[in-house]
Amino acid sequence: MKSLRVATCQFPVEPDVRANASYIKKQMRQAAGQGCDLAHFSECALSGYAGVDFPSFKKYDWQLLKECTEEILTLAGELKLWTVLGSSHPLTGNHKPHNCLYVINDRGKMIDRYDKRFCTGILKPKPTMDQCHYTPGNHPVTFKVKGITCGVAICYEYRFPELYRDYLKRGVKMLFQSFHNARHTPVADDDYNIWETIVPSTMACRAAENHLWISANNSTTRPSCWPSFAVRPDGAIVGKLKLHTSGVLVTEMKLDPTLFDAPGPWRETSMQGQLYSGQPVSDRRSTDRTRL
């Protein structure tokens, strides 16, 4: 049975890139020490999150970010540890950077980069939220670890089920989704944290709909809305870290064919547009929908 031992990592992401890098390298070593194949870090874990952890990229130290990224690449190779690293990727001229995930293999090579496709906020009449600071990407990213096809996504994209269906069609069995729901003002009243309910329940739904393993992590900077967790393909949340506490959640993600898959018999036909199960019949009492 194919499996990956995954480290879902969380720590308090700060504007201080050196401090972030220190946490990342420490948790990479911890993951490797526990026999993990892959370490997964949160959205903008290395760079910090513009508009949240710091006001903007004005006067941002991109050279320091590059140096710290290179240190992490080197460590990944030394530890023989696949690493999914949240960061920011500068573009040229006046173009805003990407909010990205670097995919680093167990030889310390950056094999791909995922750029957040659905950035929060709007562009017109005036940019808001992510749109003030980041340029959206336009491509999915898949890669194979020990023969298992993996995919990546970032935060707000959990609101778009189309992305998960697309990854399913690409053969993805494990998805690493990086979030940053910290330093957050509640959207409702102070007694109700909507994100604590919506994020885990939605990710459990996405896992069960598509029969995927999902690693979902978050920054622990206060106030953080929810702790990192892992979801099994049947929708069960099988592990969770402690809120506001740095840590590494280790999960043995097995491609177990016996796991419950409720939509399994009809998933492929529904994706092809047949939105019912079984065999319809020709019957006048079926076609006449206005009479008892």
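The record above closes out task 2.4. Task 2.5 opens with a second protein, given below.
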Amino acid sequence: MHRKAVIRLLRRSPRSATAPSRAGRPRQYGPEVTAAVELLWQASGRIGAHRLHPFVPELLDRLLQWDELRLPPAIDKLVRQASRSTLARLLAPARTQYPRRGASTTRPSSWLKQQIPLRTFADWDEAVPGYCEIDLVAHCASSTEGFYLCTLCAVDIATSWVELHAVWGKGQHRVTAAIHEVRQRLPMPLRGIDSDNGSEFINQTLYGYCTREGIAFTRSRAWKKNDSAHVG
């Protein structure tokens, strides 16, 4: 501060503290609206406010229809007219209580990366069925600690055929056995698989299985989510 400003402040007589005034329009969206918006957010799988906004009317109608939610007409109107930015502001406290992103159980593996070639999204041009993108979905809630059930998801690139198989844990032998089971159920021969760089896939067991069975094995670039055709 300039010395003259400091002198003026020191000479000024003490003033009683006053509550800060809130500028702008009076608050329109109170706790009832916030609670209703949080319920919609939970019902939609905690998607972002910008993605949730277009589905608010339909989702609200469904919840009201099945008595999962009851709202006075005034609150119902406010929830429907809330903008994207308003939804984001109302959901901000609730979002702090949950992780911003899903729990990732993928652990990078350095095994066999020279032997297993990279493949990007631009390389997926097979017109022949039998080349599958594979991934594991962990059913571990918000914590990746301990032992939990996973689902192996395989999607055929040419036909979009989907096969799912439950896997108890992420051990390489269990995952390889699950891929073998999926292979038996596919309506076409399994010609190739493409995975991420997790150690559940990049290991000697699965690599040896694919080599013996004549199955092409490729992987995506580490931390490049758009490289491959996603199954999630």
